[in-house]
Amino acid sequence: MSDQKRVFSGAQPTGNMHLGNYLGAFRNWVKLQDDYECIYCVVDMHAITTWQDPATLTQQTREAAAAYIATGVDPEKSILFNQSRVPGHAELAWIFNCVARLGWLNRMTQFKDKVGKNREKASCGLYVYPNLMAADILLYKATHVPVGQDQKQHLELTRDIATKFNHDFKTEIFPIVEPVIMGEGAKVMSLRDGTKKMSKSDPSQYSRISLTDDADTIMAKIRKAKTDAETLPATAAGLEGRPEATNLVGIYAALTDATRNQVCVQFEGRGFGDFKKALTDVAVEKLAPITTEMARLMDDPAEIDRILVRGGERAQAIAEPILQEVKQVVGFI
Ligand code: AMP
Ligand code: TRP
């Protein structure tokens, strides 16, 4: 990445921030902020695509901001704000609703997974959600977007929207974004089922390690995590066809900045009883300071609100001239 690059990313304030968010997203956001201009957004407008109780949404927006800061996002260096503060997100999303094609949205697997058989009851917002995500990114002409594996398809759509907009309006206003998907933690799976991703919405608390879990809870969840009866293999190739083993080894690798293969070499021939103890130790070591810091920040909600207001002003200052440029291109007067 050169100095011309701008980083944008976001997460939904829908509660239950978990290890997958940390390993797939937040810790990579932190690594990027030393070298690039970074904008990190709590996407509250995305959250309301499914029902959110208003008071809970407010609380969870603060909690998401606290999670960003506790994992290392520096609100002085980077811009940290909540999406609904900057009206340009909604304005640009409308323009993109008119650029994106129905056929493109019909291919979005996250929408299909989320609605299942209840498609007719899903909100219209949930359907056009990827257009809003494209607007989030392109409102700042961001070029690099650090996310977990599950967001790859949405970023491809963002590229398609930018390309079509540029083509239709004979302009080069929008950059073609690059997904930044880093490390072994890009896809953390459920502790109960190694074929399903760890998610905020899984009804089982035992499926995920939350960023608010204390050491005893983390220990209990790892102890209960599903595994198989075999021992750890000598190399990562031996994890083939063992989704739960692959996941736990992947989590250990991500937490210790190692590869799955190195972890296999280290634990070759040991059983999961042993391995889970080692995994608990590293998980507690990495997560305890985050949990403590989140609790400290949540004790002073006014301070979080001040950070979000200030971040919103800085974001608005970047977004406003870009939005004016877009409106001119579209022909609005
Ligand atoms: P969300 O929780 O869906 O708002 O996601 C926020 C960020 O965390 C996005 O960059 C996701 O790609 C990432 N993320 C969510 N779940 C996982 C997971 N299980 N493994 C890795 N990254 C994840
Ligand atoms: N859709 C993302 C998720 O659910 C969150 C998101 C919204 C986002 N807008 C974004 C991520 C822009 C990166 C860039 O995880």
Write up this protein:
By secondary structure, the protein is mainly α. The chain folds into two domains: 6-180 and 300-330, HUPs (Rossmann fold, 3-Layer(aba) Sandwich); 205-295, Tyrosyl-Transfer RNA Synthetase, CATH 1.10.240.10. It has 13 helices and five strands. The chain has a three-stranded parallel β-sheet. Helix 1 (19-32) links the parallel strand 1 and strand 2 (37-42). The longest helix has 30 residues, at 301-330. Bound molecules: adenosine monophosphate (AMP) and tryptophan. Tryptophan binds at residues 8-12, 43, 46, 133, 136-137, 145, 147, 151, 154.
CATH class of the largest domain: Alpha Beta
Gross morphology is globular
Number of domains: 2
Going across the biggest sheet, name each strand in turn: 1-2-3
Please indicate the percent range of residues in DSSP E strands (runs of 2 or more): 5-15%
CATH fold topology of the largest domain = Rossmann fold
Sheet with the most strands, sense and barrel status: 3 strands, parallel
SS element count, helices: 13
Residue runs with pLDDT of under 50 for 5 or more positions: none
**Which CATH architecture of the largest domain would you pick?**
3-Layer(aba) Sandwich
How far is the first residue's CA from the last residue's CA? Answer: 36 Å
CATH superfamily of the largest domain: HUPs
Listed once per kind, the bound small molecules are:
adenosine monophosphate, tryptophan
Order of helices and strands: EHEHHEHHHHEHEHHHHH
Mean residue pLDDT = 96
Give Rg in angstroms: 21 Å
Look at the helices and sheets and give the structural class: mainly alpha
Number of strands: 5
Helical percent range?
A: 40-55%
